[in-house]
Specification:
With about 300 residues, the protein is an alpha+beta fold. The chain has helices spanning about 1-15, 45-50, 60-65, 90-100, 115-140, 170-175, 220-225, 230-235, 250-265, 305-310; strands at about 35-40, 80-85, 145, 155, 165, 180, 190, 195-205, 240, 245, 275, 280-285.
């Protein structure tokens, strides 16, 4: 069934009208066809996330229950979590690299406009993919839901690290499905690189689990595995990345600078995005930053892939 689902998603990525930049930027696709992975709902890693992410981080069964889908016979082991990777197209990556190299003397540095607008438009497409994937499973006679759309989903804020966290972390869900590992900049390094977006769907359809190659959370990162690289640290104009890791506060502060500038330039065409922040629906026009994901060895590939093939 995995292959059928992948074909369904690939067609959606290739033909979906929402997977398009505005005409001002040529109307081309935002994302290439997806990667997918599947985890079991009773994988012990989901309980581990209550330690490494937050005590309130939801398990698949908790989302299933919150959405009113649980029946007496349902167990966590019956659930499958389909994780979907959205790789940005080569044009967005290439133009972002060219722009960043040309921006090196500017202060404050701004991301490429095509990336910011593309990332904004991507939010609507990602929600469309989730809804249509849920409908796909339902059309096959199965039940399905999504953590991102669940009434239980929230973003949380607190004074101590991590200052910002999600009750359903899509990056961690993708790690559970064997799609990648984390990096110095905290992004997920997949076989398509770290310049991606991620979402997921929970279902009782009999999908085949895709095992993790490693439970080492940083296995694809050159810095953590070989002690080299740190290109993401060099790229970050906000000083949010050091050998000690990723400072979410500094990252967010620079993101506000970028957001203010890009909203001034493009607000008429940007799409609103709703998020549940600690129980309150907040509407914004997010554009992203992602300096740390461009012109780095893990941008569009897993830099450790060849090393793993040799072992």
């Amino acid at each position: 069934m995995n292959e059928k689902v992948h074909r369904f998603l690939t067609d959606l990525f290739l033909t979906g009208e929402l997977n398009r930049l505005p005409e001002r930027f040529g109307g081309d696709r935002i994302f290439d066809p997806p990667l997918i992975g599947v985890s079991r709902g009773d994988d012990p890693i989901f309980e581990k996330y209550k330690e490494v992410v937050a005590p309130e981080h939801l398990t698949p069964l908790e989302v299933w229950t919150a959405d009113g889908l649980r029946k007496p016979e349902d167990t966590a082991g019956r659930l499958r979590i389909l994780s979907i990777i959205f790789p940005y197209v080569k044009r967005i990556r290439a133009e972002s690299i060219k722009h960043i190299r040309g921006e090196s003397e500017s202060r404050p540095m701004m991301p490429a406009e095509i990336y910011c607008v593309g990332r904004n438009f991507a939010n609507e497409f990602m929600k469309d993919v989730i809804r249509k994937t849920v409908a796909y499973f339902q059309g096959q006679g199965y039940r399905a839901t999504a953590g991102m759309l669940s009434p239980a989903f929230q973003l949380r804020l607190q004074d101590k690290p991590p200052q910002f966290y999600s009750l359903w972390s899509e990056r961690h869900i993708a790690f559970a499905a064997g799609l990648g590992t984390f990096s110095l900049h905290e992004g997920l390094i997949t076989e398509a690189g770290c310049n991606i977006r991620v979402t997921s769907v929970i279902t009782d359809a009999p999908l085949t689990v895709t095992p993790r190659r490693s439970d080492e959370p940083y296995a694809n990162c050159l810095f953590y595995t070989k002690g080299e690289c740190r290109k993401c640290e060099e790229r970050c104009p906000g000083g949010a990345i050091t050998a000690e890791g990723h400072d979410k506060v500094k990252c967010r502060e620079y993101g506000v600078v970028v957001s203010k500038e890009m909203n001034q330039r493009f607000r008429p065409i940007l799409k609103p995005h709703e998020r549940n922040v600690q129980g309150t629906i907040v509407v914004s026009y997010p554009v992203g930053c992602a300096f740390c994901q461009f012109d780095v060895p893990c941008m569009d590939r897993n830099p450790m892939a060849k090393a793993k093939e040799k072992t």
